[in-house]
Amino acid sequence: LVTGTSRLPAVDFANANFLLSFNANLFETFLSPVRNIYSYGQMRQGRPGIRGKFVHAEPRLSQTAACADEWLPIKPGTEGLLALSMAHVIVNENLHDAEFVARGTVGFAEWSAALGEYAPDKITAQVDVPAASIQRIAREFATRRPSVAVGDSRDVATLTAIYALNGLVGAYGKAGGILFGADDISGPVPAT
Predict the structure, then answer these.
(1) What is the pTM for the complete model shown?
(2) Are 91 and 140 in contact (CB under 8 A)?
């Protein structure tokens, strides 16, 4: 329902310049923690001269949050609101990948018009993150491409909001983004 395919997508954060995580405990329980730890090492130190940034939004200070460059201690259950607020900033400031949006989405005009109710100053009290922080992180996410957002939730609406951020930055089907169909896409496999 979230990505339009029945196959679980792979997140190529080994090649990302910006990783934005919403409650996805990458180093504890999210999909493959060992692969995630290895990919994180590649993102941070595996590319000479390039060090990816990692922002994690989660209510508790988990092991994953402790490893992030920035931890956003949001109120429980507000991941989707935060993602929509960031989407509002990206669309409102015209920072989205217009080519990808035109080619790969349907209903963008209607969806983006509805984002006004999620402006950072309108939801800051609900998520417990300052509006200025939401704006800054959204701008960085949109401009430090390739960027990728991941989330862990049982709520389809929340996941849709989070993964919509990937559409806004054109992350689907690109290195450093969300990939489908490849066997090894979360970073290089160590030589044996």
Answers:
(1) 0.90
(2) no
